[in-house]
Design goal:
Layout (H helix, E strand, L loop, with lengths): L1 E5 L4 H12 L3 E5 L4 H4 L8 E2 L10 H4 L4 E4 L13 H22 L3 E7 L7 E4 L3 E3 L6 H5 L15 E3 L12 H20 L2 E7 L1 E3 L12 H10 L5 E2 L6 E2 L1 E3 H17 L3 E7 L5 E2 H12 L5 E2 L16 H7 L7 H8 L11
Helix pairs in contact: 1-8, 4-6, 7-9, 9-11
C-alpha cells in the first residue's frame, strides 16, 4: 500500500516509517521539521518538508494514497500556559486541515497517533464503594506529601485498575485537550466522509533515538540523561505512580497492524490502547534505567507537577483481540537496554 506518514522524521515517526517499508509499503514521508522537536537538523533525504496546517495546498501529494498515518504533533505536557496556542495550532488545526485535504483527495483511511493523556486520571476503585472518579488532587494535599487519590465518600485511598478504551475522556493539560480534539475531529470526519479511523492511544513510549534534554522529552530519557551525568535520577512524588512503558519498536509494529486494519475496515472510528500490558512504578523505571548504566540509586524528591496524574495503566485487551497486537519488549528488559542506546540530541534529532 501507499502510506502517507506525517511526522516521519520524529522519534516515533522514524520507527514507523522503517517498519512500514520493511513490510513492503511505499511510504510518502512528510515532516515540518519543527524546531522544538528537531532543532537545526537537516531535512532527511526523501522527506517532504510540509506543514499539515497547510495540507489543503498539497492535496496532490495525497492522491493515490491508501492510508494516512498521522504522527505529526507538538508533543509533551507543555511548559507554560503560553504553549496553548501552539498546541491548538499544530495539533488541532493541523489535524482538521489534513482531514479536509484527505476528503478532497479521496483518501478514506486514517491511523491517528493519540495518547493515554486523553483519559486524565486512570481508573480507580474503592474497597467499600466500588469504581470512583476522583477530582484533580488538591494542592495542599500534594504539598503535604499525600499523593494518592481518595474516595469522595469515605476518604480512603483509592486502588488503581486497568483503563479500557471505553473510559470517559478527561484531559488535564493543553496537550491532552488537543489529543481529545484530534480524536473528535477524526470521528466526525469518519461519519461525514465515510472514512475509517484507527486511533492509537500510546502510553509511555521509549527506545533508541528518543530525544534528550528538551521540555518535550519523556521521563525515561530524563532519567537516562541524569545517569549519564553521574547524577541520581530525580523521581517526583514518592515514586509510586503506576504507568505502562511501551518500546518504540512495539509502537511501530502496532502502527503497521493499524494501517492494514484501517485500510480493510468499513467506515467508523475505533480507539486502541498501545501499551506493554506490564504496569511499572515510576521509581522502578528510574531503577531499571540506572541499573543498565551503573549502580546509581534514584532520588525520590517528594516534589510534584500540577497537571500530573497519579496512576494511569492501560488494558491491552482490545488491541490484542482486534488488531492482533501484543507487545514483545518487557519494560524491565527494554528500560535496562535503553540506558546505553543512542539518543538524539536537540540539535541532531
Amino acid at each position: 500500500m501507499r502510506v502517507l506518514l506525517t511526522g516521519s522524521a520524529g522519534f516515533i515517526g522514524g520507527a514507523v516509517a522503517a517498519r512500514l517499508e520493511a513490510d513492503g509499503h511505499e511510504v510518502v514521508r512528510v515532516d515540518l521539521m519543527l524546531e522544538q522537536a528537531h532543532g537545526s537538523a537537516p531535512v532527511p533525504e526523501g522527506t517532504h518538508r510540509l506543514d499539515v496546517r497547510d495540507a489543503g495546498s498539497w492535496t496532490g501529494l495525497l492522491r493515490g494514497v491508501d492510508v494516512v498515518c498521522h504522527q505529526a504533533a507538538l508533543v509533551g505536557a507543555g511548559t507554560t500556559v503560553a504553549d496553548l496556542p501552539a498546541y491548538a495550532s499544530h495539533n488541532d488545526l493541523g489535524t482538521a486541515a489534513l482531514l479536509a485535504a484527505m476528503a478532497e483527495a479521496g483518501v478514506g483511511s486514517l491511523v491517528l497517533a493519540s495518547s493515554m493523556v486523553v483519559y486524565g486520571e486512570g481508573r480507580y476503585v474503592c474497597d467499600r464503594h466500588g469504581p470512583r472518579r476522583p477530582a484533580p488532587r488538591p494542592v495542599p494535599a500534594l504539598e503535604g506529601g499525600d499523593f494518592e487519590n481518595h474516595c469522595d465518600l469515605c476518604g480512603e485511598p483509592l486502588a488503581w485498575d486497568l483503563v479500557d478504551e471505553g473510559a470517559p475522556l478527561d484531559p488535564r493539560s493543553g496537550y491532552a485537550a488537543g489529543k481529545v480534539a484530534q480524536e473528535h475531529y477524526a470521528s466526525a470526519w469518519a461519519r461525514q466522509a465515510g472514512g475509517s479511523v484507527v486511533a492509537l492511544r500510546y502510553h509511555n513510549v521509549y527506545g533508541p533515538l528518543m530525544p534528550r534534554d528538551t521540555p518535550y522529552s519523556g521521563v525515561a530519557a530524563l532519567f537516562r540523561s541524569s545517569v549519564e551525568r553521574g547524577e541520581p535520577p530525580q523521581v517526583f512524588e514518592d515514586g509510586g505512580q503506576m504507568r505502562d512503558f511501551v518500546h518504540v519498536a512495539d509502537v511501530a509494529r502496532a502502527n503497521a497492524l493499524a494501517v492494514r486494519a484501517a485500510a480493510e475496515a468499513g467506515a467508523g472510528f475505533r480507539a486502541f490502547n498501545v501499551c506493554s500490558g506490564r504496569p511499572v512504578r515510576i521509581l522502578d523505571v528510574a531503577r531499571h534505567v540506572a541499573a543498565g548504566a551503573g549502580p546509581v540509586e534514584p532520588q525520590v524528591t517528594g516534589g510534584f507537577r500540577l497537571g500530573d496524574v497519579r496512576h494511569i495503566v492501560a488494558s491491552p485487551e482490545r488491541a490484542r483481540a482486534e488488531l492482533g497486537f501484543v507487545a514483545e519488549v518487557a519494560p524491565d528488559e527494554g528500560l535496562r537496554a535503553f540506558a546505553t542506546e543512542p539518543l538524539r540530541g536537540h540539535q541532531d534529532v
